[in-house]
Design a protein that fits this description.
Shape: globular
Main location: membrane
Radius of gyration: 23 Å
Largest sheet: none
Helix content: over 70%
Pfam families: Polysacc_synt (PF01943)
Protein name: Na+-driven multidrug efflux pump
Keywords: Cell membrane, Membrane, Transmembrane, Transmembrane helix
Order of helices and strands: HHHHHHHHHHHHHHHHHH
Distance between the termini: 22 Å
Number of strands: 0
Subcellular location: Cell membrane
Number of domains: 1
Length: 510
């Protein structure tokens, strides 16, 4: 299977997984919210979120392992791939142990009057925290296996494990309704245990499937190579921690000023944002190995071309769903949750706007990862992102702004980070601003403007129950047409046309 067909096949597999898991996850969230109530759901998102956010580091740290594996695959060096895996596995065992100890120490301070949690729920919150702190170790040591699967572009097993995780979460949500005891504690413990199941499924498969996946040499690491991996992973981790710290830090700041009910709204907004970003992340995950392999094969022109394609298509994929949802957010949330916590509508809309801003340069993040020298990139871009926390505190403490203004600052910070990514890729990799603007931004402008205007017309002309269904359908069809006519390069339109012709040929041959 050639590279283009492999990317297409993996994208289809991951999208099938995503559609299934997203629907189940959104339904599970509704069940959990109803079973726990707004206060306990807010406590879970606040306390467990401090640890659950580390599961998102799985993707960030897996990029480090995957980058080196894909890079040496591009050079066709199997021995080097073995060294990458064994040294990476050792490194993540050490990282996992350090994080667990750090979380347990931090827990001594978090529950000593720092978190704004009702007194009668402190004990339950502490139980959740301790159980989930332990499972962080399994989250971290799963990373090399995840990176290995991505480097081999084996998205089928990744999709299988993700579906198992989602079904287990649904089972837990349904199980809550059978309990008369403390549902919050049971939910936290069972959700944490899913991480262990995932580790077993990933590790057993990789050890059986890939020759570079071996225990031989894990306990005899090469100091020089570990240092190189640790340097790259460390700076990559710093960037990811800035992003995760910003998201969870905003939850803590909102909690300090407004209490746990606002945390429920913020948690739901993050849930909506993360689910919709699966669309663009899925495409990026399919493209990333090819971006890394191109750099390993010294084909920077192809690497930059794929990075620009990732940015453009990532934005289109997210905006396809995000724009009609932003306009119909209130009706959709009422349909989904029935009882919508205060501030949830505006929080969700602003989180999606921030996600759209991030997609403008999402491919350039992969380009910098492929390049490898990311110290100053992660330092500057990460610092700008984490600056959102003191900015939010100042706005709330001294200017007494409404809660949603914190998320307005979130969108502005994302736009600034986009500009900085462009600056780094220009000076480190030689991509000109004018080419990026021409190939990405200008191609996005007409389709996005047309879609926004259409949605404005729809919500002002029509007014009936379930209007959001009509809005989504009409907006989707028109947006696809606008993207095809104005958003694609001629060779991209030809590629799509050829793909449809092949599909039609296979259907006729059945």
């Amino acid at each position: 299977m050639n590279a283009a067909n492999r990317v297409a096949a993996n994208t289809l597999i991951l999208y099938g997984r995503m559609l299934l898991t997203m629907g189940i996850t959104l339904y599970s969230t509704r069940l959990v919210l109803n079973a726990l109530g707004s206060t306990d759901y807010g406590i879970y998102n606040l306390v467990a979120g401090i640890i659950v956010m580390l599961s998102f580091l799985n993707t960030a740290m897996a990029t480090s392992s995957q980058r080196y594996l894909s890079f040496h695959q591009g050079r066709k060096d199997l021995q080097k791939q073995r060294e990458v895996f064994t040294n990476s596995f050792f490194l993540h065992i050490v990282i996992g142990a350090i994080i667990v100890v750090a979380l347990e120490v931090a827990g001594l301070f978090l529950f000593d009057g720092f978190l704004n949690i009702p007194a009668d729920r402190i004990d339950s919150a502490q139980v959740i925290y301790h159980y989930m702190a332990v499972t962080v170790f399994f989250t971290v040591i799963t990373v090399p296996f995840n990176g290995l699967l991505t480097a081999h572009e084996n998205m089928l097993w990744v999709a299988f494990v993700n579906i198992i995780e989602t079904l287990l979460k649904l089972g837990i949500a349904l199980f809550l309704y059978t309990l008369s005891s403390d549902r919050l504690v049971v939910y936290g413990i069972l959700t944490a245990s899913i991480v262990v199941v995932s580790f077993v499924l990933y590790s057993v498969f990789c050890f059986r499937k890939y020759p570079e996946c071996t225990f031989k040499g894990v306990m005899k690491p090469e100091p020089g190579f570990v240092k190189e991996l640790a340097g790259f992973a460390g700076w990559n981790l710093f960037g990811a921690l800035c992003g995760m710290g910003r998201n969870q830090g905003l939850a803590l700041i909102l909690n300090l000023f407004f209490g746990t009910v606002v945390n429920a709204a913020y948690g739901i907004a993050n849930q909506v944002g993360s689910q919709l970003q699966f669309f663009s992340r899925t495409m990026l995950r399919a493209l990333n190995p090819q971006i890394m392999k191109s750099e390993g094969a010294d084909d920077r022109e192809r690497m930059l071309r794929l990075s620009m394609m990732a940015s453009k298509f990532g934005f289109f994929l997210l905006s396809f769903f995000a724009i009609p949802i932003i306009f119909e957010m209130e009706a959709i949330l009422r349909f989904w949750l029935k009882e919508v916590p205060p501030n949830t509508v505006i929080f969700c809309q602003l989180i999606l706007l921030g996600a759209l801003a991030n997609q403008l340069t999402i491919g350039l993040q992969s380009a910098m990862q492929a390049y490898g020298n990311i110290k100053w990139y992660q330092t500057i871009v990460g610092s700008v992102i984490i600056f959102n926390l003191p900015l939010a505190y100042v706005l709330l403490k001294f200017f007494k702004v409404d809660a949603y203004i914190v998320l307005v600052s979130y969108v502005i910070i994302e736009l600034l980070a986009c500009f900085l990514r462009m600056v780094f890729v220009k000076y480190k990799l030689g991509l000109s601003f004018s080419i990026y603007i021409q190939k990405v931004y200008l191609k996005e402008m007409l389709p996005i403007l047309g879609c926004v205007l259409l949605n404005i017309v729809m919500i002002n002309v029509f007014d009936f129950s379930y209007r959001f269904v009509l809005t989504a359908i009409v907006s989707g069809f028109i947006y696809i047409g606008l993207i095809y006519l104005f958003g694609l390069e001629p060779h991209e339109r030809s590629l799509i046309k050829n793909s449809f012709d092949k599909i039609k040929g296979k259907i006729k041959g059945l």
